Every structure is written in structure tokens, then in C-alpha cells.
């Protein structure tokens, strides 16, 4: 390594340490290390890595003893600064070997340190103990059980690949959980609009019903959220079909973008004309999506749709697939779309799969309008249908084009 390169690596380690140190210096709690100590620790890590592996091990041990002494003498029960100091030493060593990796990792660590209050507020208010338990169960099932599942065609028509089916379930559930957490975390701050959009990733039908009930109590403020639900549905449709079949997602993308642009414009207009109202604290947005029971239910629905859709393709061709997807959309548009997309391009054409996805979206929209009628009344449902009609037309034109 040349002198110029070595100096650049040392400077990178120094910069990373300085970044961490400045953040710790501005932390509200009393910190034993700050804008001078952290750069020195990071620089020591780089020097130790340059000398030898033995020097790196000795240096890491010395830093560990130092932070242990800090922790024992500190009145603060937290150990964030102490752990950050060890991270600074290791990042300094990484900067000597791979500075292109050390810099983004250092930025991420600094961002985590700076986001103390938002993260604490998020973990305590937006996520309940039940949510954490559900997430841990599903993570174990996903990352422990998934590798053990056979990854080969099984069952009728060979369409049931256990590993692939479960991966699709995990992907859909994670998208739903992200929307659930976003609705919990941001709904109270940003109102019914975020509640509708984020809740749409969990369950578009259920969230439409929630917005319809809000319309009875909150009035016009609930309407932008009801329209935004469908923006989430389109976004999620592209995401889940991309997991099942990238060519189908790519072909579906222009239609989805056309519909999303129309919906986004409508939502912007409605928000501009409507006064923002915060959702009530006592009514949950939607039921939690990330439970083991919900995941198993989704897996059962997906397996059923895969078999039915493949059977329809065998007996009736592409038209049968479209019809099966339309019926499936009455229960779950995304599961029906996944089933259709999984058959392309082997059993059906990509275009047929895209049309089937559109059919699932259409029937699911009918379900949403039916729930809107029941929960919000005919007036609400008719208004919602009128606002959704341009987006439906844009998606249909994009699919047929």
C-alpha cells in the first residue's frame, strides 16, 4: 500500500471517529467520550490493523477494558456510548482494509445514535408487546423453518413449491407489517391520510371499512384516506408480483404507474380541499397482520389459489386463469395475483397473467365499494366509486395497451 493510500485510509478512520464523536458530544446524557476520544479510538483501530492482527486483537481488548471502566463508573444504566466506542475502533480497522464499507456503516451507526428519541418513541408507543412477539415468531419461522423446506415442485400439477410458497407469504406479510407499523406510528401525527395509505398495505378492504366508519364521525376528512387505500393496493400489487414473477411485474408496472398517478393527483386535490383531522386513539386502524395464524391462513389461501388457477389454465386456458383470478380477488387480490403471476411464462403468457392481475384488482375494488356502502352508507360509496373510476380506467388502458 502506497503512502498516499495509507494516509487516505487513516483520514477515513479519523473522519468516521469524528462523526461518531460529534454525535455523542451533542447527546443529552452525560458521555465519557466525545469529539476527541472517538477519533482517537478510530485512529487507533486503523493503526492496529496496519501493524498486525495481533496488535488489532490487543487494541480491541484494551478498548473493551476502557469502556468497561467507563460503564462501571457511570451512573447512566445505558451502554450506548460504550458500545459505540467499540464500534469506532472496529470501524477504524475496517477503514484501513475496506474504507468503502467503513464509511456507509459509520453513517448508519451515527444515524442510529442520533435517532434515539424517535426510536424510543416508536418502540414504546407504535409497537406493542404483542407486535414484538408476533414479529419474533414469524422471523423464526421465516429464517429457521424456510431453509428446511423442500424447494422442488410438489402436489397437483407440480405448482406447490413449499419454499417458494412460504417465501411469498413472508414477503406479503412483511409488506403488510410495514404498513401496520407506519399507520400506528404516523397516523396520530399525520392524520387519516397516512392511516388510509399505510393501512392499505395491511388490508385494503378492512382499511376502506375503517375510513367509511370515520366518514360517519369525522366527515370529509376521511375521504382522502379512503382513496389513498387504493394507491397502496396498486403499489403492493407490483411488489408481490415482482417476487412471484419479475416479467409480470415489469409488464404490469406501466398500468400501475398510470393508476397511481391518477390516484395521487386525486389525493392531493382532496387533501388541499379538506381540513386534516387526527384519527381517534381508541379505534385501531386494522388488525395486526404479522401473526403466525395470519401467515398460515395466507399460506392456505395462496396454496388454494395456486391449485385452482393452475387447474383453470389446464382446463380452460388463459380465460380460465382470468376468471379464477377474478373470483380470487373477492377474497384477496394479492394472493390471486401471485397465483396468476407464478404461472407465467411457463403455463400462461405474461400478458394473460397481467390481465388476471387486473381482474383481481377489479373484483377487489367491488369488494371495497361494498364494504364502503355497509360501513359508510351509499353516499360515501358512490362518491368513492366516482373518484376511483378514472384510476380504474387508467389501469385498464395500461393493461390492454
Describe it for me?
- The chain has 17 helices and no strands.
- With 401 residues, it is mainly α.
- The chain is elongated.
Salient structural properties:
0% strand, 81% helix, mainly alpha, 17 helices, elongated
Set down the secondary structure blueprint.
Layout: H1 3-25, H2 37-51, H3 53-73, H4 80-97, H5 99-114, H6 116-126, H7 129-145, H8 162-190, H9 192-202, H10 204-218, H11 223-244, H12 246-273, H13 292-316, H14 318-329, H15 333-342, H16 350-376, H17 378-400
Helix pairs in contact: 1-2, 1-4, 1-5, 2-3, 2-4, 3-4, 4-5, 8-9, 8-11, 8-13, 9-10, 9-11, 10-11, 10-16, 11-12, 11-15, 11-17, 12-16, 12-17, 13-14, 13-15, 14-15, 14-16, 15-16, 16-17
Write down the oligomeric state.
Answer: single chain
* Domain module tally: 2
Mean pLDDT: 82
How much of the residues is beta strand, in percent?
Answer: under 5%
Instruction: Return Rg in Å.
Output: 26 Å
Instruction: Give the biggest beta sheet.
Output: none
In short:
This protein is an all-alpha fold and 401 residues long.
Amino acid at each position: 500500500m502506497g503512502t498516499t493510500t495509507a494516509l487516505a485510509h487513516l483520514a477515513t478512520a479519523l473522519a468516521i471517529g469524528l462523526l461518531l464523536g460529534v454525535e455523542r458530544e451533542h447527546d443529552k446524557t452525560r458521555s465519557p467520550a466525545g469529539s476527541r476520544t472517538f477519533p482517537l479510538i478510530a485512529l487507533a483501530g486503523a493503526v492496529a490493523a496496519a501493524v498486525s492482527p495481533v496488535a488489532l486483537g490487543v487494541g480491541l481488548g484494551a478498548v473493551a477494558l476502557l469502556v468497561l471502566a467507563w460503564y462501571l463508573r457511570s451512573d447512566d444504566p445505558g451502554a450506548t456510548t460504550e458500545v459505540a466506542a467499540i464500534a469506532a475502533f472496529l470501524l477504524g480497522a475496517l477503514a484501513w482494509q475496506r474504507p468503502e464499507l467503513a464509511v456507509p456503516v459509520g453513517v448508519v451507526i451515527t444515524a442510529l445514535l442520533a435517532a434515539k428519541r424517535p426510536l424510543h418513541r416508536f418502540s414504546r408507543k407504535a409497537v406493542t408487546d404483542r407486535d414484538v412477539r408476533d414479529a419474533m415468531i414469524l422471523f423464526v419461522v421465516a429464517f429457521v423453518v424456510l431453509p428446511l423446506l423442500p424447494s422442488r415442485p410438489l402436489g397437483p400439477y407440480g405448482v406447490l413449491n413449499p419454499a417458494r410458497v412460504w417465501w411469498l407469504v413472508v414477503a406479503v406479510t412483511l409488506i403488510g407489517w410495514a404498513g401496520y407499523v407506519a399507520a400506528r406510528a404516523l397516523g396520530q401525527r399525520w392524520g387519516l391520510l397516512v392511516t388510509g395509505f399505510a393501512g392499505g398495505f395491511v388490508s385494503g378492504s378492512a382499511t376502506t371499512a375503517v375510513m367509511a366508519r370515520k366518514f360517519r364521525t369525522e366527515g370529509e376528512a376521511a375521504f382522502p384516506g379512503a382513496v389513498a387505500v387504493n394507491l397502496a393496493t396498486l403499489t403492493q400489487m407490483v411488489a408481490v408480483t415482482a417476487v412471484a414473477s419479475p416479467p409480470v411485474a415489469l409488464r404490469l408496472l406501466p398500468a400501475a404507474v398510470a393508476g397511481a398517478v391518477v390516484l395521487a393527483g386525486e389525493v392531493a386535490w382532496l387533501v388541499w380541499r379538506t381540513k386534516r383531522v387526527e384519527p381517534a386513539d381508541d379505534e385501531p386502524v386494522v388488525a395486526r397482520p404479522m401473526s403466525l395464524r395470519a401467515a398460515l391462513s395466507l399460506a392456505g389461501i395462496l396454496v388454494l389459489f395456486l391449485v385452482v388457477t393452475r387447474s383453470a389454465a389446464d382446463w380452460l386456458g388463459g380465460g380460465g386463469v382470468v376468471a379464477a383470478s377474478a373470483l380470487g380477488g373477492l377474497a384477496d387480490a394479492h394472493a390471486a395475483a401471485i397465483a396468476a403471476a407464478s404461472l407465467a411464462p411457463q403455463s400462461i403468457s405474461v400478458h394473460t397473467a397481467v390481465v388476471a392481475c387486473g381482474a383481481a384488482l377489479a373484483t377487489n375494488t367491488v369488494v371495497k365499494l361494498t364494504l364502503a356502502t355497509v360501513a359508510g352508507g351509499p353516499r360515501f360509496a358512490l362518491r368513492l366509486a366516482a373518484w376511483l373510476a378514472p384510476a380504474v380506467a387508467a389501469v385498464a388502458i395500461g393493461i390492454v395497451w
